[in-house]
Design a protein that fits this description.
heterodimer; A: 101 residues; mainly alpha; Helix Hairpins; 76% helix; B: mainly alpha; 2 domains
Chain lengths: 101, 469
């Protein structure tokens, strides 16, 4: 596979994630969209790492960091989603409308 | 200087976070944890001030840089942390079983911000950005009113995580375009892919600064999070965001015209949207959130000039913004000590109930509005001077119109506090820590207003790191 294939694949993944983040109303679905965007970035890093970069380990190290950070972020996000669920009994974004000017 | 000596301010904050964590595990009273955290924050402030002129690379050459820019911004971050802690004596808006955790998250987040302004490598930058954000996400969720707290935190983390994912995708394109993650190497090359990546990478930083269109979280998060969390998000995190924004946009110096156009649009939109939306707000924290959006726009004026004068003006503005914005937030913390959110109506009669608090509010609001002799006037003066020197005459006109709009709602707050009579004339008792915080905020705003030269010279030195000469 050429680098273009990988980059297009990552771009498609990123757009799907962004689309899910913008249109889905379910908090978990939005989180999955964010994960897709992070994974698209990871694939980009690996592709550039294989085909472009002079130092072949940098991309791999970055991807390892991304995996760790994404796990930490999701842990916090899920705990907040759980807190929302306890109060609202659902996790629909449309229900989060108490804070208004 | 040795590696540890250069890292001393961050190390002190890290130690403070560990101490606060251990104290919370042991189960001591909140008051003791609070006092220990304040001592550590004060120590960090002293070490930062002592290392103001330090420069070097404590470890991993090229990855973590201590220079005039990072040290000046660290002073602002530690100052914001210390003042937030001063206002945290009674955490009435935080659930009682998690109060003891607040100093930990404040300090971890401050550590992330301090590393963020020193990061000169993309991965370090991203990790610090996330570290500074995680603590804030949790801090936003701790309100006694669980429904609002959960909603505030959910909106904050979803916007934050999405924009940081866009940032990461942008960083991957920068890496692909330049083949390096070191900012020094990236600045030396220029490619279309790099420019696209940089614009995407700005998303996460503009989110932190609450620039339009990344501002949607700010009003809801400020309103639904505990007062002290909102104070910290509204002061210290802006300093870190401006620092990293300045570093990132100067990577695109060969393509600065394109980037300046993007920033110009965001700048005008932020000022206008922030000021117009603030006029109709009743809740003080919501009003302050929209005023933050407007001030993010003012700061962008300095950055989009791509000149030494412009960067120095932006740095000066964000540093004085910490004590200026802290004043109104302190009033919110004191008035809302029972966990409620103060509205415009609850400011009535403040002058009779607590003259010191009313004065803090007035000095802070005058600073935000840019009325002399407060530091806000000096800051706006520098920004507009830089914009005129950069041939942005129309931008100055638009900004001046915006300042005029903002004076309307700022002064009506002063009117509420000083002239509107109230049925409740009971005096408000300020705790010693809050009184100290109030005096510090007033003193800093007035001193920097009457005598801006020392801070301006520090800002100019810091700007030299990026803009040279």
């Amino acid at each position: 596979m050429t680098i273009h294939m990988w980059l297009l694949f990552a771009l498609a993944l990123f757009c799907m994630g962004l689309y899910a983040t913008l249109v889905r109303r379910n908090l978990i679905a939005i989180l999955i969209g964010i994960e897709l965007m992070l994974n698209a970035a990871s694939i980009n890093f690996m592709a550039f790492n294989k085909f472009v970069a002079s130092d072949p380990v940098v991309g791999q190290i970055i991807v390892l960091f991304i995996i760790g950070l994404a796990a930490a972020e999701v842990a916090i996000a899920l705990s907040i989603v759980l807190a929302v669920y306890r109060e609202h009994a659902n996790i629909d974004v449309s229900d989060l409308e108490e804070l208004k000017g | 200087m040795g590696a540890l000596e250069l890292f001393l301010p961050e190390a002190t904050i890290l130690l403070g976070a560990i101490v606060a964590f251990l104290l919370s595990v042991v189960g001591v009273r909140y008051r003791i944890t609070w006092m220990c955290s304040m001592v550590m924050a004060a120590l960090a402030g002293v070490t930062t001030a002592m290392h103001l002129g330090a420069h070097g690379q404590p470890f991993f050459p090229g990855i973590y840089t201590v220079d005039a820019l990072s040290q000046l911004l660290k002073l602002g971050i530690v100052g914001g942390l210390f003042m937030t802690l001063l206002a945290s004596g009674k955490l009435g808006s935080v659930r009682s079983n998690v109060r003891v955790d607040v100093p930990i998250y404040l300090m971890v987040s401050a550590l992330g911000m301090m590393m963020l302004v020193s990061a000169t490598e993309l991965l370090t930058l991203y990790v610090s950005l996330e570290l500074s954000a995680y603590g804030l996400y949790i801090l936003a969720a701790l309100h006694t009113m669980r429904r609002q707290g959960g909603e505030a935190a959910a909106k904050y983390i979803l916007f934050g995580a999405a924009s940081s994912a866009v940032t990461l995708y942008g960083i991957s394109l920068v890496y692909g375009g330049t083949g390096s993650t070191y900012l020094s190497a990236i600045a030396a090359t220029s490619s279309p892919l790099e420019l696209v990546g940089l614009v995407l990478a700005l998303a996460g930083v503009l989110f932190k600064l609450a620039v339009f269109p990344f501002h949607a979280w700010a009003p809801d998060t400020y309103e639904g999070s505990p007062h002290q969390s909102a104070t910290f998000i509204g002061t210290a995190s802006k300093v870190a965001a401006v620092g990293v924004l300045a570093r990132l946009i100067f990577l695109a110096l060969p393509n600065k015209d394109e980037l300046a156009t993007v920033l110009l649009i965001l700048c005008i939109a932020s000022m206008t949207v922030g000021n117009l939306a603030a006029i109709v707000q009743r809740d003080i924290k919501r009003l302050l959130a929209y005023s933050t959006v407007a001030h993010a726009g003012y700061i962008l004026i300095g950055l989009l000039c791509f000149s030494k004068l412009g960067v120095a003006a932006a740095l000066f503005y964000v540093l004085i913004y910490v004590p200026i914005a802290f004043g109104p937030f302190l009033v919110v913390c004191v008035l809302g000590a029972d966990g409620s959110n103060p509205t415009r109506a609850s400011l009535a009669g403040l002058y009779h109930r607590s003259p010191l608090l009313a004065l803090t509010l007035m000095v802070g609001i005058f600073g935000l509005a840019g009325i002399p002799p407060t530091a806000g006037f000096a800051g706006k003066w520098f920004l507009f001077t830089a914009a005129i020197e950069g041939q942005h005459f129309w931008l100055v006109v638009i900004a001046a119109v915006n300042v005029t709009i903002s004076i309307y709602y700022y002064l009506s707050i002063i009117k509420d506090a000083y002239l509107t009579p109230s049925d409740d004339d009971s005096a408000i008792r300020l705790s010693p820590a809050s009184a100290v915080a109030a005096c510090m905020s007033i003193a800093m705003v007035l001193v920097a207003g009457f005598y801006p030269r020392p801070l301006w010279e520090l800002a100019e030195q810091a700007a030299k790191v990026l803009a040279g000469g």
